[in-house]
Amino acid sequence: MRVTQQDIARLASVSQATVSRVVAGDARVEDEIRERVLGVMKSHNYRPDVRARSLRQQRTHLVGLVMKRDARDLQGDPFFSMFVSEILDYLSNTPYHLCVDIASSAVSQTNVYDELLRTRRVDGLILVESEPRDNRATRLQADHFPFVLVGNPGEAKHLHSVDNDNVLAGAIATQHLIEQGYRKVGFIAGPSELTVSKDRVEGYCQTVSSAGLRPRIWYSDFGFDAARSVGLQALSSEDRPDSLVVLDDFMAMGVVDAARELRLAVPQSLGIVSFNDTHLCNLVPGGLTSVSLNIREVVRRACGTLLRIVEDRNEEPPSRVVVPCALKVRGSSLRTPEVALA
Amino acid sequence: MRVTQQDIARLASVSQATVSRVVAGDARVEDEIRERVLGVMKSHNYRPDVRARSLRQQRTHLVGLVMKRDARDLQGDPFFSMFVSEILDYLSNTPYHLCVDIASSAVSQTNVYDELLRTRRVDGLILVESEPRDNRATRLQADHFPFVLVGNPGEAKHLHSVDNDNVLAGAIATQHLIEQGYRKVGFIAGPSELTVSKDRVEGYCQTVSSAGLRPRIWYSDFGFDAARSVGLQALSSEDRPDSLVVLDDFMAMGVVDAARELRLAVPQSLGIVSFNDTHLCNLVPGGLTSVSLNIREVVRRACGTLLRIVEDRNEEPPSRVVVPCALKVRGSSLRTPEVALA
DNA sequence: TTGAATCAAGAATACGTATTCCTGAATATT
DNA sequence: AATATTCAGGAATACGTATTCTTGATTCAA
Hints:
Rossmann fold, DNA-binding, 434 Repressor (Amino-terminal Domain), 12 strands
């Protein structure tokens, strides 16, 4: 049977209120009584009921993670693992727990919204969003619900967001290839409607333009196979690019495979730079140069902000954090390794 | 402000109890009144408070996922993504949500146990466990708490478990290599104390013995780099193996890289079979042969069982499910592709 | 037509906790 | 010594819902 404060109170000959005070560590309770209560609690293995506590305090100590992504797509996606494990890592030092929900469709988006928030299951939300048209953020704002958007807030102003500087990331990757002596720098992007694609393409375009080069852009679906076939196509074109910036590591693996099939040596005949700097980068011989988005930092900032606005009932003024990215140079872009390492 | 059943009741000129009945879909409420209440609910955007409901019903509709694993290790681990996304997929058709906790140390193990269960944060638990010495299962049993163990229950008897047949998996992988004509079949295992290592090694040993071959076993830590260096070592030994069974896909990638460095052609000079059949298998040229553990099925059985025992307050007699595995043949083990494909 | 039976819906209660309010005693202040 | 102040801890209440108990009305059987 479940042991409650009522039981402890009876056994320690005090009132339930006193037990509650002991649990809360209230200073205004006599040492002798505190000891007695603690003793009974310990010997009866008492633990407070988080459900009652949630109701009473209007706080569940749960935060939600919502991503709009097909469950299928998650399987090969290191981003998801990294994101979740970083969140868990952060929360492990707090009284909060994580409730994960993946919304794959518009319908389930709404469901998630209703289920998690309006029913008050979670105290706050981390919303990973890549489509600006999405109206979830707007709804959350309207309800004055504590949440942090991970991604580009676009026009939306009065909300908390944490984002990578994807424009800069695109620029850095491109600039690096140019500095390595590549002149026909192409870009293999993901679905064109995604902000992440747009932003990185923008950084890429700015940079090639500044260098007096011509932009060459291909759009691909996510995933190894899709990127591989787009890569084959791009590299088979006359006037083929001598280097490619690829939207993520996983897609880059596909491009590497395409290059292998076409017998294009990496990095001599084809330089490759991608994004995310996941473990995948170590799987190709020589390594894959990748722009680290510093997910750990993104998560830490997002969680920090979220917990703060949860605690203060969303009083903190909206903040917009941009986490810098850093190029992690490996073999796939080092045309002149000896020079570069010198 | 938060709108409650009390508010709805007032506005619809009924009692709060009636509102509750309407919410519950109780048939014994007059149509006219029901309509009126529903109307007010809709126009005021009412949603039940899951916290109050949890307290009243003694049920949170949350299930927990607990894995004992270092948060760091998760990053490159497709298993985690697959597992979580399959659970989410399953739960999306139920009223349950998922609370994820990763316990990295013995301390946090206890914390998780206390935090999630004894505080009644979750209704039930999926426990992914690979170390038999672990006493969490025992404690859960003692508390009569609904949980399903994913992994080998070992001696533990009266508990629900879902497991792969890892002994069989080890045997299948080994048998396949032998059938392909390999004779010096080695095994690169993970940490020797893990059940998953032990079981697969056992299947491996049985099979090589039956074939009159000598077992060659190396133990490695998890991860690409560790497996890579153990692979180098194994393949550098005099009388080196002509094929290797590797504990998981990720480690197998490391072994592939080791083979590449030693200029051993796969599959001609070195056959490789691994486990899990993740997306990584498609990243090596020709593909990586892998034993699919059918995680989807494991998860579905585990979730199904868990939800049943949660619903019936753990009355169902303990079940032990063993999910069969299946070999997914790809290039890394096909010494004779034409024959095999014929 | 009367008593029993059915039933819709309100009143009351419980879930377990945190907290406000209150009381009586002890200490401080003059 | 008398009044003011502090304070430990008990009593009562609220959080929002589900459910049992109760009641008044209606239906049914005789």
